[in-house]
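quick one: zinc ion bound model?
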Amino acid sequence: MIEEPGFSRERPGFFVFGGGRSVVRALGGKQAIARVWQTARLGTPRGAGLMRAQCQCGRLTVELPGPSPAVVACHCIACQRRSGSPFGVLAYYPEELLTVGGEGKRFERATDEGNRFETVFCPECGSTVYARTVKHPSMIGVAVGAIADRAFPAPVRSVWEESMHHWVTLPGEVQHFAKGRV
Ligand SMILES: [Zn+2]
Ligand SMILES: [Zn+2]
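yep, here:
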């Protein structure tokens, strides 16, 4: 079966990078992901700066290799509060593909699953630009709103839907979870 880029329905925890040929572990196999990323021409190697995420004032930036196929919407209360929006959307990348510019301030909190979640925000204007979990420290979640590109891929996974605002619907093939992904 040929699957589109995104989370595999048959192999939970795996990403399919298009054509069904390249399947790598979504979180943890960062070298593999970096290779596939480049072969699949989903983006260019680090430093090329095809895309950029930034805070409101522009002091904190992240250069991205291109769009990510790993976009996750989170409806948990903490993401609602950190983003000031009904849900947070993060696009995940292997850390080595990103270049951070500027000095962010860090805030770390415990998650309901007993992990640590760290957000990095601009000390001047307060925008969250990226985040990571201690569980998967090699993957960085870049705030999709900070990329400000209306063509950016939609979420492929939606988590903590038990606290999702009643009017929210996500289009297309999305994996739905009442809580965090196990
Ligand atoms: Zn700023
Ligand atoms: Zn959340």
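The chain has three helices and 14 strands.
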